[in-house]
Amino acid sequence: MKRRSSFSRTLGRVLTYALAILIALWILVPIYLIGVSAFGEKLSAYTYPRPFWPAPFTIETMAFFLKSGGVIKSVQSSVIVALITLVLSTLIGAPAGYAIARFIFSGRDAFRLIVVSTRSFPIVILSIPLAVFFIEWGMYDSVYSLALMHTALALPFTILVTSSVFASIPRDLEEAAQTLGCSQFQAFLRISLPLALPGLAAATLFTFVLSWNEVFAAVILTVRNRTLPALVLTVLDESQLPYRFAGGFFMMVPSLIFMLFIRRYLLNLWGRVTK
Amino acid sequence: MAEIKIINVQKQFGKVLANRDINLTIHDREFMVLLGPSGCGKTTLLRGIAGLDPIDSGSIYIGDTDVTDLPPRKRRIAMVFQSYAVFPHLTIFENIAFGLRMQRVANQDVKKRVEAAAELLQITDLLKRFPAQVSGGQRQRVAVARALAAESEVLLMDEPLSNLDALLRLEMRAELKRLLKEVKSTVVYVTHDQIEALSLGDRIAVMKNGSILQCDTPLRVYDHPANEFIGSFIGNPPMNFLRGTVQMDGSRVNVQAGGASIQPPSSMESILKQKISSGVRLGIRAENIEVVSKAQKDAMTGKVLVVEPLGSHNLLTVMVGDQRVKVNAHADSLFQPGQAIWLRSASEKIRWLDVESGMALAE
Question: Which of A23, A170, A203, B114 could staple A161 via S-S, CB 3.0–4.6 A?
Fold first, then answer.
């Protein structure tokens, strides 16, 4: 009886790991293949089976991709859009998140619901009328108007994450600060904000990645000031396979690095507590 | 001077009246304990004094200042929270220094006062650590040190010992008492633990359902509970309550209870005379009951139900008629369940209460 249960426990664990490895491979293998092709010789992109290691290793393809028309400029655009999005959504979203976490006001639940429901509109449906407005207002094809759009897309996430970050900081701490001579605002600045900072940083990083990767709105709302994903999507469609891999790899790296940083907070967000 | 005057304070949460028309004056440097079961409004009252939850009506004075509409930082208070509320991102030193930094005290004075407070609570060697690196009991000390370092005129404590384990609580209780004797603050201390209240307080305000039922010295509250609730809430075991009938024996008043004929003190006679028709309730503490081995005129007849040896004494549960009575008997007494015994109590140790209201009859 005891042996059987320990056997089934082992089996269960093996299956869990097998499934986890399978899922990991599902994501990692394409990333790896992109990397191999991006740093391999041009011709290796067409060989089959793919070489397991980019031999000979070369950055020629990457360099060619980076030097090709408009890539550097679109990277600049992407960074500007992402930074504006990050700043705006933090400035607007963090106070909203704080309010949801700390204050009980009528309509709080409704507000939370509305915030989430904005994400249920497909971006394409939002983008086209928005493009029309932007054209009317003379804001079309600008990194700033695209940043506004991305801010709108990022806000629900920012608000919900920051509210969960602030909710995890006991109210007692702010109250204690108030009894020790702080105003409500000072208590926030000296106690809650420093404690929330790691979580807030995670939220802003995620916003950055979200903007960096966003392609639908970018394609519709920009023409000459393309962001990198929009450029990759439109231009590389007509280019050779190795350059597509190079473009894909270049797009992917920042997201991967950011994910590494904020992994802990994302897990927290899904309800798992990590210490 | 930091006398606290609470005048007609009222506070409502939704439909619940947490504080109903509370009036209480806490003297300068007094140690006042707010005692009551959970939900009685004691913490609400404390937070009202602190200014963390604004009160609905009434006013609060600290010293000569009307603080009713002042924010906590302008009330010259310090508070120890039940959860300690130690700031996790600051070292123990900076935690204790926090209030002083806010008052812009000069650096060397901050150091001096933090070290003095740490010394008092014996946490000097922890000053460089972060709260996560010390134990719960030590964090509790940090919270107290932080409140003391502020040297405010009023010290508010919200169940500061309730998160400690039993042994640590006992130790910290005595230490708090020693500490707070040295501090010149007026202390308001909230607890639901009657022993804590008895051991620490200069006075105890017993609360229930948002009202203060009795406010008096620990001994008075223990010996002369204002009503049945207080008698059974304070003391372990709770006070015994027995039915009695009042009779006239010639010109003297006589009370019959549990088969005993008790002669009340002469000071009670005129009040008890009015209770001839309604009867009276007798409140007797377990330690004020003497077990006698044979029948006496003024002894109640009982039968031992349970014997619990508690080391220092034996706790007996005795059936007197259909009423249970707790009695403290000597540790070396040899009683058996089922044994018939007789219980005597000196009549001046008996409290007399109204049958209907449960209120103590005034002497």
Answer: A203
